[in-house]
Amino acid sequence: MSEMRLYDAAGNRLYLNAEERAAFLAAARRQSARDRTLCETLHYTGCRASELLEITPARVDLSGGTVTLRSLKKRKDAKGSPRIVYRAVPVPPEYLDTLNTAHGLREAAKSRKKANAPIWPIGRVRLWQIVKRIMIEAGIPDAPHRSPKGLRHGFGINATVNGIPLHMVQKWMGHAQLSTTAIYADAVGREEQDIAARMWG
Fold first, then answer.
1. Please, what are the domains in the chain?
2. Contacting residues for 105 by C-beta, under 8 A, at least 6 apart
3. What is the pLDDT of residue 129?
C-alpha cells in the first residue's frame, strides 16, 4: 500500500489551499446545476471521485444534514472477510437546499428506483473533465493539485486548520487509520504560514 502524501517528489503541493478552494467554489456556482452540485459535493464532503458517483438520493439526509458515502477502499473484518463501510458527513444546509432543488431529492425519495439511482450518472473520466474545466476557470494553476484528489486533500487541510479533531476528520474522510489522517496536521504549519503571509501582506 502506497503512503499518502501532500507533496510530490519535487515538493509541489498536492492539495488546494483556502484561496483556491474558495475560487473553485465560486466558479462552480456559475455552472449548470449538475456541474455545480457535483463540485460542491466534492468540496463539502471531501469524498473520493468514485465515492461521489455512487451517491443516491437515499443517501442524502436532508433533515439530518448529512451525505452518506460508501468507502470504496477495501476493508476486512476480524476474520479477514471483506466488509462494507459507510460514513455520514455533515454538510451545510444551503448546499443541501441547492442539491435538493437541482435534483428533486425529496420527490425521488418517494420511488425506490429513483431513490437508489446515482444522482450523477456519469463516469470517472467525465467527472474529472468537469472538475478540471472548472478549476481552470477558477484560475487554479496547472500543477499536481489541480485535480479531484487536490480537493479531497484540501478538505482535510481545511478541517484541520479550523480545529476539527483528527478523529472526526478520519471518520469524515473514511480513513482506516488515524495515522493517515495525521498527515493533515503535519501540513497545517505550512498552510498557516500562507494564511499569516496574507494577513501581513
1. 18-194 (1.10.443.10)
2. 57, 60, 62, 99, 119
3. 97
